[in-house]
Input
Amino acid sequence: MTTEAAHPRLAAYPALRVSPAALRAGILGGAVAVTALWAAQAEPSARLDVLFATGAHLTGLLAGYGILVMLFLMARVPAVEHGVGADRLARRHALGGRYVLSLCLGHALLALCGYAAHAGTDLVAATLDLLGYPGLALAAVGTALLVAVGVTSARAVRRRVQHETWRAVHLLTCIGAALAFVHQLAGPDVAGSVLTVWVWSLLHAVVAVLLVWYRVVVPVRQAFRHSLRVIDVRVEGPGVVSVVMQGIGLDELRAEPGQFFRWRFLRRRLWRTALPFSLSAPVRDDTLRITVKAIGGHTRRVRRLRPGTRVLATGPFGALTAHRRTRRKVLLLAGGVGITPMRALFETLPGGPGDITLLYRAGSAEQLVLRDELEGIARSRGAALHYLLGRSAAAVDPSPSSQLRSSRGDPLSPQALRNLVPDLAEHDVYLCGPPGMSASATAALVRAGVPEEHIHAECFAF
Ligand SMILES: Cc1cc2nc3c(=O)[nH]c(=O)nc-3n(C[C@H](O)[C@H](O)[C@H](O)COP(=O)(O)OP(=O)(O)OC[C@H]3O[C@@H](n4cnc5c(N)ncnc54)[C@H](O)[C@@H]3O)c2cc1C
Output
């Protein structure tokens, strides 16, 4: 069953989505084309300096192409964001960034070795010589900027660096990419033919326009068009609040349940950062709602927002939506504040009685949020709702007719999941929770017989 045809309510949402497989094929196809461009110009030779130079040309071309791909992945193009998902894009960007940096450094080293072998000098003298050329000096600056980005993105460093600092350093990629582009236009591979100069320049221009359009123009336009303001902040549980915002023409955003926005609250010590939060309810009567758990400085300040505060929201983003669905039966599995997108999906995913099940994992009953709403939705649409509480093992069915079910052991073990959802393997599973819980739940689901392609997960971390 493909969703848009089977569920008319989805027809309101944008249909154009790039699938992860199509994106991968496109990126690989581009890499093959770049390699073919190099192969067409490579001159076979057994001379050491020529061999180094040939290697430098290939790594340089692939590095230039890789930088372009990295920027494209982060351009927030809706068809890509909605088809692939922001978290998966961020992971690919992080992995690809390592390859690109290795290619840049490999290119620099091979070029230096080639020059040193040709001129009969050592690497230090070759470096000093080459830095005397303005174009190469700029390329060296560009590489240094990319190295700085790579270092601050390494897991051990990133954990210690504030998100804003990491982001500011990341913006240096654009300068690095511009310097690399100028360097490539001067190099023999691209400059070798008018056609390649035009194609290379056009590709860079397209990515630059996409970046400016989707990361600057669209957010500014949305800010002016929708005039979003906080109208209510209500406590949902320990350290958790819901923020309700009202604006104009919010239907035009075509935000789907399961998606998230980046929110910039225009008040002191919050306006400088755009925080990602999922919608915890469908868009309704020109209002948007998020539910936020305080875990750090910014989320603690969100709790103190006042009605009237202006909000800039960019989005929607994310692919954890109904379009991923392939089966009639759906299991929604939420851990902690991962309940937010699940709450919106629980209400809106099409289905009859018995089709939708929500499992909500939390440390204790006090930590459950939006409980009245979840139970109301379960009742009104005949959906199943189970709370999985405690560190070890209490599975509680909230319906008054049911018995308290508890079992020793892991409530997310394959057997425990099968006990709660006997025909589990026939379900699509939507999963959102902390990284550890998501990983163990995915493993348990697979062991319980759910094919991996039917598990649709989103992680609350980039
Ligand atoms: C797609 C997505 C949807 C999310 N939905 C929800 C939700 O519905 N409810 C909820 O409570 N939380 C949600 N989160 C998590 C929430 O965004 C973070 O808890 C929040 O940004 C932490 O900010 P802080 O400054 O209070 O905490 P910090 O302690 O400063 O940061 C905690 C973590 O959040 C990351 N982070 C901080 N600022 C940002 C930022 N501007 N952009 C991206 N990551 C950042 C940090 O890198 C760190 O890993 C979501 C996250 C993502 C990625």
Q: What stands out?
A: The CA atoms of residues 124 and 190 lie 28 Å apart. Residues 86, 163, 260, 273-278, 290-293, 295-299, 318, 337, 340, 460-462 surround flavin-adenine dinucleotide (CB under 6 Å). Residues 86-119 form the longest helix (34 residues).
